[in-house]
Design a protein that fits this description.
It is elongated and about 60 Å long. It is mainly alpha-helical. The N terminus is likely disordered. It has one domain.
């Protein structure tokens, strides 16, 4: 969710933005199918939709470049806030596993950001490179987690929310 220059900005968040936009726009309200659903399915549809909207709000700060991508403190605050919100969000049962992975991978991104900041302050080129590689891996996992959430949503919808 942050770029190779150390901020939440154009590079990694640009890639995440694509995943979030697909996530937020690709799975609309389930209201159009409510007439065909049993009460249990309707309840599940409502929980899935609420989860989707809440997750979209949590990830929203990463959908656009930040005004100062060099500001590691701002990036850290954004990630801390998102992690706290992810930890408090209770996913529907079908999303429990991927939600845990998303939370862990976002924490890994934050840890890489902290390591990057330390390496930058110490001017340690090897540590900088390692932090960048760690961040790239964590960002790739986060993107995969978001894609998996989309897959679960599509599966739930295809199964008339019997997930």
């Amino acid at each position: 969710m942050w770029n190779e220059r150390g901020g939440v900005g154009h590079s990694a968040s640009g890639l995440l933005a694509v995943a979030v936009i697909v996530f937020v726009s690709g799975c609309g309200s389930s209201g159009s199918t409510s007439a065909k659903l049993t009460p249990t399915q309707y309840s599940t549809a409502q929980r899935v939709e609420s989860y989707r909207l809440a997750l979209g709000k949590i990830l929203a700060p990463f959908t656009h470049p930040q005004p100062n991508p060099e500001d590691l403190g701002h990036a850290d605050r954004l990630l801390k806030t998102s992690i706290g919100q992810l930890k408090r969000l209770i996913p529907p049962p079908a999303f429990a596993s991927v939600h845990g992975e998303l939370t862990r991978d976002t924490e890994a991104e934050r840890l890489a950001l902290v390591q990057f900041g330390k390496a930058r302050r110490s001017k340690d080129a090897v540590a900088l490179s390692n932090a960048q590689a760690t961040a790239a891996q964590a960002t790739a996992r986060t993107r995969a987690d978001i894609a998996q959430v989309n897959t679960v949503i599509k599966k739930c919808r295809a199964e008339s929310f019997s997930c």
